[in-house]
Design goal:
284 residues, alpha+beta, 2 domains, four-stranded antiparallel beta sheet, 10 strands, globular
Length: 284
């Protein structure tokens, strides 16, 4: 079965159902009650949670794309003291190969993407799965795409983003956009719409990225889409101008790469997403 033509919710449900059929059911009990105690169910492969990926983060040529987050079996999960059980590293490596094989058995491309996530720092491992057109050559991601990229925060060793020397990716990009917008407004050019900035989930980082943020542009209220209603008059022009202004501000910063899959607001869009990233150099 292909996910092409399915909406994000339906496509996510399809893949989650198929993974459940292959043994990675997120609804399967991982613990059993033994008197007053809960003990892990032994011998399970862990479970997977599926999340639809924003189109601007998809690999080249993808028709659909998901983040798949694998959680280890309960017997190899961190205990209440956050300690890693013996044998967890082997379980992670065996399960990585098994999850990749399961995804590929469904006709999907799959890879472990983004900065390294190992059992010593993280409680789960993330994959990217995507569907290509029939006959397309699968040549992504490039080998060593994230070599040398430090592990993302938060994690169990390095702590939270605010413990690092520099700002979190979302804070860095938000600050750079605010500075550019202030200069633009000082020149008499007002904001069009509004923006929100978040850290990008690490499996969605583009190859070579050492940080990444996701920016969403939102229309002014009078041009927003109401549930079940068509776009208001002049909304398309407002959206094009607002997204264009955002892309122009990102270009004016001068140190980021960025891309968007946005083409036209249409009836199903609430906002326009842009993924932003840079390499290892720190902002000046």
């Amino acid at each position: 079965m292909s996910a092409v033509g399915l909406g994000p919710r339906e496509a996510r449900h399809w893949l989650e159902t198929e993974l459940g059929r292959l043994g990675y059911d997120r609804k399967r009990p991982e613990y059993t009650e033994d008197g007053r105690h809960f003990r892990p169910v032994l011998g399970t492969p862990g479970w997977c949670m599926v999340i639809w990926a924003p189109p601007e983060t998809w690999p080249p040529g993808a028709l659909a794309c998901w983040r798949v987050v694998w959680h280890p079996a309960a017997e190899f999960s961190r205990d209440s003291r956050k300690e890693v059980p013996k044998g967890a590293a082997g379980h992670w490596e065996e399960s990585t190969a098994a999850v990749l094989a399961a995804l590929r058995s469904l006709g999907l491309q799959a890879a472990v993407t983004g900065p390294h996530r190992g059992s010593e720092r993280f409680g789960s491992r993330a994959f990217l799965a995507w569907e290509l057109p029939p006959g397309a050559v699968a040549d992504w991601p490039p080998a060593g795409a994230w070599d040398g990229v430090p592990p993302t925060r938060p994690n169990f060793i390095d702590g939270w983003p605010q413990w690092a020397e520099g700002p979190a990716p979302g804070d860095e990009v938000a600050g750079a956009l605010r500075a550019v917008a202030e200069r633009r407004r000082g020149a008499g050019v007002a904001d069009i719409g509004r923006r929100s900035v978040l850290d990008t989930d690490s499996p969605l980082w583009p190859p070579g990225a050492h940080m990444s943020a996701h920016v969403t542009w939102w229309p002014d209220p009078e041009f927003a889409r109401a549930y079940g209603e068509p776009l208001p008059p002049a909304a398309a022009e407002h959206w094009r101008a607002g997204v264009g202004q955002l892309l122009g501000d990102l270009a004016a910063i001068g140190r980021y790469q960025f891309r968007t899959a946005w083409e036209h607001p249409g009836a199903r869009h609430d906002g326009a997403g842009v993924i932003v990233w840079r390499g290892p150099s720190r902002p000046s």
